[in-house]
């Protein structure tokens, strides 16, 4: 009987923070009957398994094991996210407080691992524990959304393109209708103020004005109360305005509703403008591709183009998919992806990425990845989904708003009832009026709208400067960085090595030494090996090679034409008992020995990046206390580069695992401050994952960088780290300006209202006026210039 084929899967363990727990999970999973092999990678939180059986059942068992060992860890199968998550568009979502309620209630549903509403882009992202929960969850989600905001239109993300323009026109027509409705109400209000009528005539005119202006608010409030949702802005405004009518303050009752509605309308316009401003920063999604079919061009959706298809990009068009240029030559604008203003030249044989804009020539491109895996799509997903990773300040404001409004409502009730019972001269109507002022002020919209808008604007502004930040939490964390650890090769230096000197020993020529080195390094793709092969320029006869052995941290041992050849650093020479020369020049040294005889050395140098020194200096000016460089190079090279750049400390001759160990030591000494590591995103993935904030250099198009890092610097320039921190600092400054401004104004007006010094007009300003100003202030982030 034929043996069953084993299934190989990779699981992502979200929330896994304990290395010891990871080892326990790996051990327990390996003991499951269906599991034949398991391997844990704690650095990138993955578990690779080979199983014999139903993968869904085994996934449930692994999830149970993980939760038992480290409660809270979520297990999902990599690459199957689409089966267990959905993204919905909530068209017409205009209330930030309502969005927070939806998010909270959806998050409590059975089977839901994560629910996150991005108020700015009007998107709801839901992730369930297993795909079997999805249908029932979506039904419950639609019910919750409709209960809280009946006018919101729910549709799936995949339908977005077809609705984009109509939605924009819909917004404009909605605003016109609102202005017309409020204008009619205002006419009746002004008539009631100017005409000298009796009580009933005044009541009739004020009543018509009030119902015209506030009818929508009253209806919403009634619906919400019937569903048990009492404490929202509609309820507060309804009670405040009806209370004003009850004490015969008709003008103020109508005025409160009028100015509230006008303020809300202007706030909606400002929020929409801010949304458009943020979305324009990321307007890099290509609309079409010119597909070459049988010699003719056909305009198609980029999703329809397959790998190895041929597309043509005309001058002025966006490059729709990643590929290789096979014909033509042109300058391309890369600023949409990298923030780099200087155009780049591309020609046949060069890689080109989606999102670039073709400036002048006609380019023919062979597609190397489909749209789902293209650079532009990855970046859009990163930036759009970044809002699901909320900053601590956002989480605090959401929690604060839940308790703030009920607290103020009950305070208003106490203010209306207690003083007339305790103070002999107090009148109920006077204290009721003061309580109504309290109610109007209490809505937390200024905070609930402007804070997420600020963080999302910060993420968008960072992307405009060529910096991808994966969430508001990382953007806020950048403010607390005091230690920066940087890899040398590819981060502070170009990472492009070249042979600068060949020094043979006696009985060897330069040509012989270089040939021996080239043969020894011919099976390696390390940059040092590539530089030696580039310098050799000859052809390597692989039939002469035998017994190839790589010695970690030392070099290579290989048999060439029946002679044992050593190629590596001084540690290899010491280990093998070979007497070697010590060069005086600074650089990476490759020593060569043949049959135990020293043959000489080859010196290889790497150039420091032009902006590296300025980057270190700029970080110091931003308050970074310590900059440490890690490298696998020798002491002499490390010391030379460290001195040239002005870093505070360095660690040399490190293997990849040594870098993690060194980082662990630095993490123990950091206290409450954050440690940031900058690496190339490929070889440094374990260190990137272990740092408080992992930053990948030149990660554009690199899966490893995007997977492991929290921040990606797309221009491959260390100075971009300064842009990232500046955006983070500016965002925090604006967010805290809004918090202090909103709470300060509300606090002052609440106190004035309690003392009888503030009327309804003050209260309306403290609500919608403050909210509008906070939104306009948050919009400044999107216009932030590079430092």
From TrEMBL:
Residues 7-70, 84-153 form the HMA domain. The chain crosses the membrane at residues 179-197, 203-219, 403-423, 435-456, 734-754, 760-779. It is a multi-pass membrane protein. It catalyses: Cd(2+)(in) + ATP + H2O = Cd(2+)(out) + ADP + phosphate + H(+); Zn(2+)(in) + ATP + H2O = Zn(2+)(out) + ADP + phosphate + H(+). Keywords: ATP-binding, Cadmium, Cell membrane, Magnesium, Membrane, Metal-binding, Nucleotide-binding, Phosphoprotein, Translocase, Transmembrane, Transmembrane helix, Zinc. InterPro entries: ATPase_P-typ_cyto_dom_N (IPR023299), ATPase_P-typ_P_site (IPR018303), ATPase_P-typ_TM_dom_sf (IPR023298), ATPase_P-typ_transduc_dom_A_sf (IPR008250), ATPase_P-type_domA (IPR059000), Cation_Transport_ATPase_IB (IPR051014), HAD-like_sf (IPR036412), HAD_sf (IPR023214). One of its GO terms (molecular function) is ATP hydrolysis activity. It is found in: Cell membrane. Coiled coil: none annotated. One of its GO terms (cellular component) is plasma membrane. Belongs to the cation transport ATPase (P-type) (TC 3.A.3) family. Type IB subfamily. This is Cd2+/Zn2+-exporting ATPase. It comes from Orenia metallireducens.
